[in-house]
């Protein structure tokens, strides 16, 4: 399974190559006032795919890196420069064969990045600290360290045994999504080419929801189908999060959420965290020749070694594909249009940031972790005050996490033999 993990890290870098090849200075200018405010705020991103870089040989998160060289967008120097206090670091598992062996392999693969993240924290206690509760974030940031919450992207590793979620929770996981790009045994994906399989959650998926609630794990509906989101809102005893999503009203993509569902999400206390991944923000037409070239590239990436030289070669190939078959790339303002629409529809109490850096995120004018202050500057320019901007940066996200914690604590406090909560409202 190490080869699967290594190929994922390489592919992640490739997705970012187009970002790195043509940096445009577009985006708001960050004034001294905006920068000062940004530094005062507790700033969290709900979806950092940076753990996929940990297996790249010689890659050190304490050192400054260049996206032109390795495709990475987040490291400690750039986090400091961008004033990001931390966030949720994703444990991503690709969707593999839906067999007993496939699920077991996925389970084993999921533990590798979890261990790597914890080893990072243990090795650098002055720079990073694992957060287990919502209230940990402010304390960690006040100490000058980066906040490390853990999240699961794709519940495939636990579909054979939702009880395994407890093991992940004990190791620090506090956010989990049931599905990724393709359907699995828990739920339907918004982007599976075969369409819906379960028309929402499977029975195993419903047990996954109940177990997450019991453990105080927030449920993440990003990548899930609309029907899954509907059922999560209905079944979950705590608010649902979309850790990195966009709005259909701005760009009609299956990954994005429509206004009616956004209103229901907000009414249930949930939050949408806006991503900065171009394909989900604007139309990017497909060219058969381009798609074929990319498929060949991905095939080579899956079998290549996790070395800097290998990644640089693949980045160069990706750049050539972009040159021969260019597609539009979203701008900072394109992404911000999604953010503003979400605020107008759901209210600022239900919106946050999940840029998807190191997992394909990044747009013109918002290239890597150094650019986070641009969001604060743009919100100020829109007339939002410090308290409202704080909600966007972490207040709403931590409120959802506290709700999950409180519910789980309430279950633990019940007398032995007390009736458990019903499976639906």
TrEMBL record:
<keyword id="KW-0732">Signal</keyword>
<keyword id="KW-0378">Hydrolase</keyword>
<dbReference type="Pfam" id="PF01244">
    <property type="entry name" value="Peptidase_M19"/>
</dbReference>
<feature type="signal peptide">
    <location>
        <begin position="1"/>
        <end position="22"/>
    </location>
</feature>
<protein>
    <submittedName>
        <fullName>Dipeptidase</fullName>
        <ecNumber>3.4.13.19</ecNumber>
    </submittedName>
</protein>
<dbReference type="InterPro" id="IPR032466">
    <property type="entry name" value="Metal_Hydrolase"/>
</dbReference>
<keyword id="KW-0645">Protease</keyword>
<dbReference type="InterPro" id="IPR008257">
    <property type="entry name" value="Pept_M19"/>
</dbReference>
<keyword id="KW-0224">Dipeptidase</keyword>
<dbReference type="GO" id="GO:0016805">
    <property type="term" value="F:dipeptidase activity"/>
</dbReference>
């Amino acid at each position: 399974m190490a080869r699967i993990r290594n190929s994922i890290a390489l592919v992640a870098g490739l997705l970012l190559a187009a970002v790195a090849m043509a940096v445009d200075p577009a985006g708001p200018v960050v004034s001294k006032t905006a920068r000062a405010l940004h530094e005062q705020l507790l700033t969290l991103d709900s979806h950092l795919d940076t753990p996929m870089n940990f297996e790249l040989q010689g890659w050190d998160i304490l050192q400054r890196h260049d996206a032109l060289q390795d495709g990475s967008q987040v490291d400690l120097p750039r986090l400091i420069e961008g004033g990001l206090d931390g966030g949720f670091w994703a444990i991503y598992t690709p969707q593999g064969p839906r067999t007993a062996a496939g699920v077991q392999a996925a389970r084993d693969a999921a533990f590798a990045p979890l261990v790597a993240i914890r080893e990072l924290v243990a090795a650098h206690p002055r720079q990073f600290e694992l957060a287990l509760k919502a209230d940990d974030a402010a304390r960690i940031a006040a100490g000058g360290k980066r906040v490390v919450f853990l999240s699961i992207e794709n519940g495939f590793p636990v579909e054979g045994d939702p009880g395994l979620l407890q093991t992940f929770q004990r190791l620090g996981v506090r956010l989990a999504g049931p599905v990724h790009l393709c359907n699995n045994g828990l739920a339907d994906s918004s982007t599976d080419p075969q369409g819906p399989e379960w028309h929402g959650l499977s029975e195993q998926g419903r047990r996954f929801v109940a177990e997450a609630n019991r453990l105080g794990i927030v449920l993440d509906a990003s990548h899930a189908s609309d029907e899954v989101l509907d059922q999560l809102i209905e079944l979950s005893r705590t608010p649902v999060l979309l850790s990195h999503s966009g709005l259909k009203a701005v760009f009609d993509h299956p990954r994005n959420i429509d206004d009616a569902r956004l209103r229901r999400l907000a009414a249930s206390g949930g939050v949408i965290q806006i991503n900065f991944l171009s394909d989900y923000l604007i139309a990017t037409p497909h060219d058969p020749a381009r798609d074929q070239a990319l498929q060949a590239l991905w095939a080579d990436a899956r079998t290549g070694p996790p070395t800097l030289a290998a990644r640089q070669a693949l980045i160069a190939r990706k750049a050539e594909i972009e040159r021969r078959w260019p597609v539009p790339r979203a701008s900072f303002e394109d992404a911000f249009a999604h953010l503003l629409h979400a605020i107008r529809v759901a209210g600022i109490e239900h919106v946050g940031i999940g840029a998807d850096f190191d997992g394909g995120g990044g747009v013109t004018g918002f290239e890597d972790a150094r650019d986070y202050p641009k969001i604060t500057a743009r919100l100020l320019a829109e007339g939002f005050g410090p308290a409202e901007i704080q909600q966007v940066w972490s207040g709403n996200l931590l409120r959802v996490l506290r709700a999950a914690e409180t519910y789980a604590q309430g279950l633990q406090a019940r007398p032995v033999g007390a009736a458990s909560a019903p499976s639906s409202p």
